[in-house]
Amino acid sequence: MGIVFAVISGKGGVGKTTSTANLGIGIAQEGKKVVVVDFDLGQRNLDMILGLENRVIYDMVHVMDEEAGLKQALIKSKHSDGLYFLAASQTKDKTALEKEKVKKLVDALREDFEYIILDAPAGIESGFEHTIMYADAAVVVVNPEVSSIRDADKAIGIVDAKCERVKEDKNVQKYLIINRINPTMVQSGEMLESNDILDILSIDLVGKIPEDQGVVEASNTGRPVILDEKSPSGAAYKRISQRLCGIEVPFSDIENDKQMTLMEKIKSLFQ
Ligand SMILES: Nc1ncnc2c1ncn2[C@@H]1O[C@H](COP(=O)(O)OP(=O)(O)OP(=O)(O)O)[C@@H](O)[C@H]1O
Ligand SMILES: [Mg+2]
Questions:
Q1: pLDDT tens per residue, the chain (271 residues)?
Q2: Are 33 and 113 in contact (CB under 8 A)?
Q3: From CA 209, how far away is CA 252, in angstroms rounded?
Q4: From ligand 1's centre to the CA of 249, what distance in Å?
Q5: Among the atoms of ligand 1, which is closest to the Cα of residue 18?
Q6: Integer Cα distance of 246 and 268 in angstroms
Q7: Which DSSP string do the residues of 157-225 spell out, in sequence order?
Q8: Does any ligand 1 atom lie closer than 6 A to the CB of residue 40?
Q9: Which protein residue has the closest C-alpha to ligand 1 atom 9?
Q10: Which domains does the chain have, with CATH numbers?
Q11: Is the CB of 131 under 6 A from ligand 1?
């Protein structure tokens, strides 16, 4: 039986879909059988980030409405053996999901996969609730901004109120990713520090990702940044993937990473 992770944030645009794609690849690289599912109905993006937009024929609503079988709708990733993708419907909106049908789909995925990663829509409305309802754990993505932290706190509250696991008196583990950290701004006091964020949210940190234009470029080309071995944000996603697989990996101090000046970069080329 697989474990179901819902990737949530409350606030939109903080990096849920980016994280889902990178963690899907990273966990598959650890030898696990993984499926990533786009629950953002009407606004699907995960297909593009994985470079699979031309391969989508059937989506999860087709499967839920029994217009297609699960095997027909699952798309194998070209980036990693063991990674599969299930698309969101582009035409139906977030209210199109029904609780019983979501449960049936998630249960079917649990049978076939070790890791099931659900990419939640922004907000805390019905689409979000359907994503978290049958999850075993939540990956909470925040940016180091007050509005993001406040919305994440609300989203965590809903997880604790509405997850089926909680109703069964079981815990829903939460893992925090702090995304888009700018070390220079943290050092100059213009950006919230991770410790402050952890104090407010009181959930376990699973990793930090730096602000990185490479993430955007990688997403635009359909090759998530984790595939770039030289990328610090790719390496950060790799460490998070390993932690989610139960491997102990030391935390690296992204906030105190010195930004290399141009002169330092030039000098380092001659060392
Ligand atoms: N570490 C990063 N550095 C720079 N840009 C990033 C980083 N992480 C994500 N982004 C960019 O931020 C934008 C939003 O990311 P993404 O789509 O993953 O967020 P989301 O939470 O899924 O958004 P939505 O709530 O709309 O679904 C994208 O353009 C993405 O490339
Ligand atoms: Mg998204």
A1: 999 999 999 999 999 999 999 999 999 999 999 999 999 999 999 999 999 999 999 999 999 999 999 999 999 999 999 999 999 998 877 777 899 999 999 999 999 999 999 999 999 999 999 999 999 999 999 999 999 999 999 999 999 999 999 999 999 999 999 999 999 999 889 999 999 999 999 999 999 999 999 999 999 999 999 999 999 999 999 999 999 999 999 998 888 865 555 666 566 667 6
A2: yes
A3: 10
A4: 25
A5: 18
A6: 36
A7: HHHHHH-HHHHTT---EEEEEEEEE-HHHHHTTSS--HHHHHHHH-SEEEEEEE--HHHHHHHHTT--G
A8: yes
A9: 15
A10: 3-269 (3.40.50.300)
A11: no
The type of residue at 216 is V
How far does residue 128's CA lie from ligand 2's centre (Å)? 11
**15 contacts 209 by C-beta, under 8 angstroms:** yes
Q: Ligand 1 within 6 A of 124 CB?
A: no
Distance CA 152, CA 15 (A): 13
Atom of ligand 1 nearest to the CA of 212: 3
